[in-house]
């Protein structure tokens, strides 16, 4: 009897709890309905509300990643979002937008990213744009204060928007090497526009994991230049992740206090290892640079570093196997070119045949032909198997008249024209100052400035320069 009585009591308590829970649910639902936050209300915002447009311009993918995160944060609060690369059509579609947000980086010597050059030339340089009058906008400008023209493109864009009569929703935010305080201001600005910034994780600074140093091999013994090493790294745990030719790593060596150094990946995952080709940076006081010194001198097998693989859209290739490639580089720039040549060799092998259209031309420069021939065994093998159909090597210290890759292009002017007419894509990897500038001038003198601009705008010139 006592047992039955106990059960009855339990049933009553359970009933009371269920009723209380149902009442609570009803009250919460009613409150949400009144506040316009019910699922129906969400759908309503999603379809009828004015969209926020997010426009990005990015050379090495950081601005693009930040733009995508912002899109995710705004989308999570039910705001419709349109995300576009700056060179895609948007200007005639943004009338009536709630806000237009720009996330843009600066590269070269204060220039826009390559894919934004056409927009810069045809829109910004053309002056104020009536389509933007009255629009609410915001600019996040990525840059690096160690360059003389800090955030120059973001600044020019901001001035153009102001001159066009657009209205800043918040002051332009200039970001120095992804500094945390500026990115926090961006987050607050997005919150002010209603974004749910909690969904912005994984944030940009995550994605790093522990990797171990496997080994290194000097590629230029006896060279008059600073040492160049091929370095191998492996993830500390788990399998090798995926990447594609053209991608980069951000690496934080031990003791670097969070500031990552970027390196072009020289290998492909199919080879079962991640390899970099690194020049030891010698500082003014004669000491080696932090990251290059660690990789090339002080790291021992199994020492750990934090590493993240980063897509590099400007230097990835989407063109097919039948597109001719002109690969131009110098020094450690062989890293990014080697990955592309390896990808071409793998794709040709997988297709079972090589054809004359699948031609590759490597123009590579170093100092001494005797000591500076990185990857020469592979380059020779690719030449024999006709993966490489044309090879021009220049050695600046050997020739009586100093000769660089740009001189090789000038010497081969007719071939350059023919290859470009044949639809070639041009890949440029290595030093920005000396090499890439010289190559740009040589291409302009051979092909004409307008054609080079057109190639850049069409995404047929891919640059990984540093
Ligand atoms: C997209 C990209 C791809 C790259 N790919 C490669 C590659 O494949 N191979 C390769 O060897 N290198 C590559 N680099 C260069 C690489 O990232 C490093 O810059 C280089 O290895 C030097 O780093 P470090 O840590 O050894 O030198 P650091 O210790 O950073 O010193 C380098 C020099 O910069 C100066 N310096 C350091 N910090 C600052 C600062 N805050 N402001 C101003 N000056 C400063 C120092 O005085 C020194 O002269 C690439 C760079 C980029 C951006
Ligand atoms: C070759 C090179 C040139 C650069 N030139 C500039 C510059 O002139 N001004 C500037 O503020 N930042 C400059 N930067 C820094 C980039 O703007 C910064 O790294 C930015 O975060 C890159 O964003 P992205 O990956 O979206 O292109 C340069 C970076 C590189 C690699």
From TrEMBL:
Residues 206-318 form the FAD-binding FR-type domain. The chain crosses the membrane at residues 12-29. The keyword 4Fe-4S does not apply. SUPFAM superfamilies: Ferredoxin reductase-like, C-terminal NADP-linked domain, Flavoproteins, Riboflavin synthase domain-like. It comes from the Bacteria. Residues 52-191 form the Flavodoxin-like domain. Keywords: Electron transport, Flavoprotein, FMN, Membrane, Transmembrane, Transmembrane helix, Transport. Its EC number is 1.6.2.4. PROSITE patterns: FAD_FR, FLAVODOXIN_LIKE. PANTHER family: NADPH--CYTOCHROME P450 REDUCTASE, NITRIC OXIDE SYNTHASE-RELATED. This is NADPH--hemoprotein reductase. It comes from Uliginosibacterium flavum.
């Amino acid at each position: 009897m006592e047992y039955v009585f106990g059960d009855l009591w339990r049933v009553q308590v359970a009933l009371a709890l269920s009723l209380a829970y149902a009442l609570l649910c009803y009250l919460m639902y009613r409150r949400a309905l009144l506040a316009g936050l019910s699922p129906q209300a969400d759908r309503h915002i999603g379809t009828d509300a004015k969209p926020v447009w997010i426009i990005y311009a990015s050379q090495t993918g950081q601005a693009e990643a930040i733009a995508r995160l912002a899109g995710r944060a705004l989308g999570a609060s039910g705001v419709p979002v349109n995300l576009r690369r700056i060179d895609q059509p948007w200007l005639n579609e943004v009338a009536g937008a709630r806000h237009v947000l720009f996330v843009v980086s600066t590269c070269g010597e204060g220039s826009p990213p390559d894919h934004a050059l056409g927009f810069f030339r045809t829109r910004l340089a053309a002056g104020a744009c009536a389509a933007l009058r009255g629009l609410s906008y915001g600019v996040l400008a990525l840059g690096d204060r160690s360059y003389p023209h800090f955030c120059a493109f973001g600044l020019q864009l901001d001035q153009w928007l102001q001159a066009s009569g657009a209205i800043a929703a918040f002051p332009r935010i200039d970001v120095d090497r992804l500094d945390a305080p500026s990115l926090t201001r961006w987050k607050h600005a997005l919150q002010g526009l209603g974004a749910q910034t909690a969904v912005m994780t994984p944030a940009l600074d995550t994605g790093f994991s522990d990797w171990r140093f496997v080994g290194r091999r000097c590629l230029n013994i006896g060279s008059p230049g600073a040492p160049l090493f091929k370095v191998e790294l492996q993830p500390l745990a788990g399998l090798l992740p995926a990447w594609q030719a053209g991608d980069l790593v951000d690496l934080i060596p031990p003791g670097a206090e969070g500031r990552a150094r970027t390196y072009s990946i020289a290998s492909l995952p199919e080879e079962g290892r991640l390899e970099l080709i690194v020049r030891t940076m010698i500082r003014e006081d004669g000491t080696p640079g932090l990251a290059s010194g660690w990789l090339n001198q002080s790291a021992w097998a199994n020492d750990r570093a934090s590493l993240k693989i980063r897509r590099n859209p400007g230097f990835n290739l989407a063109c097919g196997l039948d597109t001719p490639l002109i690969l131009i580089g110098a020094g450690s720039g062989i890293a990014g070119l080697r990955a592309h040549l390896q990808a071409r060799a793998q794709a040709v092998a997988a297709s079972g045949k090589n054809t004359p259209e699948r031609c590759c031309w490597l123009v590579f420069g170093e100092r001494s032909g005797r000591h500076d021939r990185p990857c020469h065994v592979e380059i020779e093998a690719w030449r024999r198997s006709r993966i490489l159909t044309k090879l021009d090597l220049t050695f600046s210290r050997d020739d009586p008249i100093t000769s660089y890759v740009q001189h090789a292009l000038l010497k081969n002017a007719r071939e350059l024209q023919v290859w470009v007419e044949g639809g070639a894509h041009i890949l440029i990897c290595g030093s920005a100052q000396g090499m890439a500038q010289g190559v740009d001038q040589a291409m302009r003198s051979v092909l004409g400035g307008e054609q080079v601009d057109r190639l850049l705008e069409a995404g047929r010139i891919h640059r990984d320069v540093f």
